[in-house]
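Researcher: I need the complex structure. Ligand is phosphoric acid mono(formamide)ester. Inputs:
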Amino acid sequence: MQTNLRNRDLIGDLDFSKEEVETVLEVAFDLKRKRALGEPHAYLRDKVLAMLFFFSSTRTRGSFEAGMAQLGGHAAFIESTTTQIAHGDTPMEIGEIYGRYFDGIAIRHCDWALGNPYLNEVARASRAPVLNMQCDIYHPFQCLADLMTIIEKKGRDLRKKKMVVSWAYAASYQKPMSVPQSLILQMPRFGLDVVLAHPPEFRLMPEIMDQAQEQARKFGVGFEVVDDMEAAFKDADIIYAKSWGAMVHTADPQEGAKIIDKYTHWITDERKMALAKTDAIYMHPLPADRNIEVTDGVLNGPQSVVYDEAENRLHAQKAVMALTMR
Ligand code: CP
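Model: Output:
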């Protein structure tokens, strides 16, 4: 068991080794049990986390804030437009200064090509660990919660299980590609055969694809890319279908929005779910565009595990905070 995580950043999914992720999972399951039993677990008494948001959130804010309180500490919610960042505070200054006030700095910055460099610049200047609450490239805490949920539903031995990570149509906005990228990086390390499905214009970042292929090779699992949602769903154990934008194909948001509208049939519905195994689970990080991205029948149905996923954000984040911010 690798426990040397004190003061470590978590920005990309591969920042922690597989053994370190296993430690996080073990602690997360223990914290989930402790919360269910009402056992005190104030491992971060007097510690304070800065939560700096450049983008809105329901689950991430709620779960980090509740998690810090349950660990005996405090989380400071800082909305970027209420700061002096627009008036000149640089990422280096945020890292230097907040690193002196706080015991951890969690940041959500999803702007394409800006978010991840921002987090890394803060981290280079900060003496406190930097935690990625979602950037344009990665959503590591969502992925840890997803992995926890898959283990709960499918067991610890995930070899030979087929996980589909699929693009889905959405009308609301061009969503970040951080969730599918985190999934294809992390899941092969835990034995899942991953099938990535998307229309041609929704390809993921080439460097992330290379890393995912390398992980699949290293851990001896399958990694396949297809452009047919229905073919992908066939005989799957886990369906993870969500929308993301065409940012790799085009940097023009208007052109990206037009491309999305070509693929309205990429919806997860009961007919497509029936192509998967009868005990397949449906996953989505939320928020979802209901009856556009996924039908109410699937999202509210017996195969859906979306609320367990959302709950596990709390436990996985508490585990990482307790291990890194001590
Ligand atoms: N899944 C997720 O990150 O949710 P929020 O955007 O509401 O935080």
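Model: Summary of the prediction. The chain has a mean pLDDT of 98.
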